[in-house]
């Protein structure tokens, strides 16, 4: 749930979204939740490819990490 929230968070301030459809499947705003889920689904493999870290093996963070 936290990953989905982090992926969707930037959309909160969005005033306009333009979606380009490939001709099959859902179109318009109905497509947006699927796009967010697609990003969430692909994220663990992308993190592992970029860092070598398997997301499911990282211990949970119990407090915010300062930057």
Descriptive account of the structure:
This is FLOT1 protein. With 67 residues, the protein is mostly helical. It has one domain. It is 40% helix and 0% strand. The chain is built from 2 helices and no strands. The chain has helices spanning 2-8, 32-51. Helix 1 packs across helix 2. The longest helix is centred in the middle third of the chain and has 20 residues, at 32-51. The model has no long low-confidence stretch (mean pLDDT 80).
Which range does the strand content fall in? under 5%
Unreliable sequence segments: none
**Rg from C-alpha positions?**
15 Å
Order of helices and strands: HH
Count of helical segments?
Answer: 2
Number of DSSP-assigned strands: 0
Main β-sheet: number of strands, strand sense, barrel status? none
The tally of domains stands at 1
| Terminal Cα span | 22 Å
Q: Tell me, what's the shape?
A: extended
Protein structure class: mainly alpha
User: What's the mean pLDDT score?
Assistant: 80
Organism: Piaya cayana
Protein name: FLOT1 protein
Give the topology, please.
Blueprint: H1 2-8, H2 32-51
Helix pairs in contact: 1-2
Short description:
This protein is mainly α and 67 residues long. It has one domain.
Key terms:
single chain, 67 residues, mainly alpha, 2 helices, 0% strand, FLOT1 protein
């Amino acid at each position: 749930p936290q990953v989905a929230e982090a992926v969707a968070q930037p959309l909160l301030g969005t005033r306009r979204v333009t979606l380009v459809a490939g001709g099959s499947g859902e179109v318009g705003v109905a497509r947006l939740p699927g796009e967010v889920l697609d990003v969430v689904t692909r994220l663990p493999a992308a993190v592992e490819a970029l860092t070598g870290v398997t997301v499911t093996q990282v211990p949970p963070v119990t407090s915010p990490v300062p930057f």
